[in-house]
Inverse folding.
């Protein structure tokens, strides 16, 4: 085992709750693998939910290939999460953090796909009397009244009137949207990587405070309301039970710890462990998922629904193994409205990541990341989003703090544990059969889980207001206006899509997408009003919110964030993401 940093030990003693394994310790391999599996299980539910959340947005409809495409997206999600987690924990910010898909990108994507350009087209019926509909010139089956490839309606292909006037199959419809999303995410990832590589993050945090972050994060959850309703309304009873189990385990039984059975080599029998584990809080998501599935199975069996048999047939038809590869779902396309629409997510994911770095560092009993580590973290997060786009996940990546709960409970903050967990994700991405089980979960179960988990995003934003002096009329006004404009402006342009006309169809569509985004309006209003209105850093919350993560911490022992060979590279002191970087202001004062 590596030598534990004495400074970290001192911090642990002050905290009164020392870690069993510090961030640079290497636990024995049996313990390391077991703890890694636990980290994996804690995030597997969230990773498996992504295909189900994504596919309705890209106009995907059930077909005989339903399980195939869902499994492909699920496999790409696990593979991308595993690779980005390993890179971030090893070369990025070097904290034991997990990387996964971003809700902020999901919300931005919803605004883009709700525009006139990318709205889901209607299914059409082409008859022999209207052969020129949708500019279609192919064969028509008059006896069926639809276009098809067979002699009966069960084999007929569904056709859709695309927004550009063309006729397309459902596969062509959703792949066009997926290609646009892939290209947009790749561009956004490159931009975020540049932000980290050039050190712009340090400039950002001087002007973006809690009064910008709080309304932005609030609008992230508000924008998901239609998605959650659509999933839960399939069966509110199943969704309600799933949510209730999650709440009971995660909140009401958060501090309930029990002794687990273990095999004693000395006594050669099974005994109860001395330590108690908060197993209910640790596996609240997994428990809610399992119980929700059981309830859904019972209800489906009692009502005679054939959904279970259909799901089993779909799972059985999926091969056991498959390898995910780049551009598996087609080559990316680049659309100005799509790129600008998804660029909205760059700021919240960047700010969110910085906050998560500070939280994880606190849990690991080490100092908050210095600026060079945060720059490097954002650099690798941007590179991770590029990888997400290449693999066709349909989202950018961000840092998750769900594993912080596991670290607190297990008292194991070793970086090696998260690295092994990331390798497990990569291996699981190849087991198609297991992925199909996750990808074909019932919608009300997923809705109940999202209802419980997405609320944490809102709480993160609201919690940042504790750094702001909310007794000041300035701050109350800025926050209130930012929230209300985020409700009003997008709703107006949604109700009146023709209210803006800039002479160019593409420019008009792009601006319309931006104005329909509650997240962008909240962020813009909060940023502009907060920086225009007179106020001290203490009043605005900037003094304490970023105080623990500023340049001053670079003076302390931050070796856990340093790359081993970066200091030996020529010119490393000129790169903002290297530990030897010295900004001009520092050089003059040193």
């Amino acid at each position: 085992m590596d030598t534990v940093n004495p400074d970290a030990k001192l911090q642990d003693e002050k905290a009164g709750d020392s870690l069993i394994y510090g961030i640079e310790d290497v636990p024995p391999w049996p313990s390391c693998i077991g703890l890694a599996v636990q980290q994996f299980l804690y995030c597997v539910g969230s990773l498996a939910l992504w295909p189900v959340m994504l596919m309705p947005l890209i106009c995907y409809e059930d077909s005989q290939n339903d399980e195939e495409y869902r499994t492909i997206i699920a496999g790409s999600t696990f593979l991308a999460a595993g690779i980005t987690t390993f890179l971030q924990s090893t070369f990025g910010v070097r904290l034991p953090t997990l990387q996964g898909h971003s809700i902020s990108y999901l919300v931005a994507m919803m605004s883009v796909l709700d525009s006139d350009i990318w709205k889901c087209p209607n299914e059409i019926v082409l008859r022999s009397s209207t052969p020129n509909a949708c500019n279609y010139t192919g064969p028509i089956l008059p006896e069926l009244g639809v276009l098809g490839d067979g002699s009966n309606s069960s084999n007929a292909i569904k056709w859709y009137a695309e927004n550009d006037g063309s006729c397309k199959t459902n596969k062509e419809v959703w792949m066009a949207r997926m290609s646009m999303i892939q290209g947009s995410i790749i561009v956004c990832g490159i931009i975020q990587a540049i932000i980290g590589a050039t050190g712009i993050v340090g400039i950002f945090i001087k002007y973006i405070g809690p009064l910008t972050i709080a309304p932005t994060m609030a609008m992230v959850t508000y924008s998901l309301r239609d998605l959650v309703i659509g999933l839960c309304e399939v069966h509110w009873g199943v969704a309600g039970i799933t949510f209730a189990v999650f709440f009971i385990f995660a909140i009401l039984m958060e501090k309930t710890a029990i002794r687990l059975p273990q095999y004693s080599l000395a006594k050669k029998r099974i005994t109860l462990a001395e330590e108690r584990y908060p197993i209910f809080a640790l596996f609240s998501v997994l428990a809610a998922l399992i119980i929700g599935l059981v309830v859904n199975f019972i209800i489906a069996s009692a009502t005679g629904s054939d959904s279970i048999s259909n799901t089993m047939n779909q799972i059985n038809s999926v091969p056991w193994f498959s390898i995910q590869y780049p551009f598996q779902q087609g080559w990316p396309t680049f659309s100005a409205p799509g790129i600008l629409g998804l660029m909205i997510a760059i700021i919240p994911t960047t700010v969110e990541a910085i906050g998560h770095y500070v939280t994880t560092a606190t849990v690991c009993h080490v100092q908050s990341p210095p600026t060079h580590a945060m720059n490097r973290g954002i650099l690798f997060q941007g590179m991770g989003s590029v990888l997400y786009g290449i693999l066709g996940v349909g989202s950018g990546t961000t840092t998750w703090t769900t594993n912080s709960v596991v670290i607190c409970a297990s008292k194991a903050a070793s970086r090696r544990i998260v690295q092994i967990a990331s390798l497990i994700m990569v291996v699981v991405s190849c087991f198609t059969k297991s992925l199909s089980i996750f990808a074909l979960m019932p919608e009300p179960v997923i809705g109940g889980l999202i209802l419980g988990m997405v609320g944490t995003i809102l709480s993160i934003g609201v919690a940042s207001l504790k750094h702001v002096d909310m007794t000041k009329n300035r701050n109350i006004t800025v926050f209130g206006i930012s929230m209300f404009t985020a409700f009003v402006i997008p709703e107006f342009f949604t109700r009146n899509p023709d209210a803006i006309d800039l002479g160019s169809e593409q420019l008009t569509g792009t601006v319309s997408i931006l104005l329909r985004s509650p997240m962008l309006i909240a962020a813009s209003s909060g940023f502009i009003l907060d920086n225009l209105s007179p106020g001290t850093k203490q009043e605005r919350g900037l003094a304490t919110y970023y105080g623990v993560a500023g340049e001053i911490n670079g003076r302390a022992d931050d070796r856990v964030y340093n790359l081993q060979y970066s200091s030996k590279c020529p010119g490393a002191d000129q790169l903002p993401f290297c530990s030897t970087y010295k900004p001009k202001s520092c050089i003059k004062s040193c």
Observations:
- The chain has a mean pLDDT of 77.
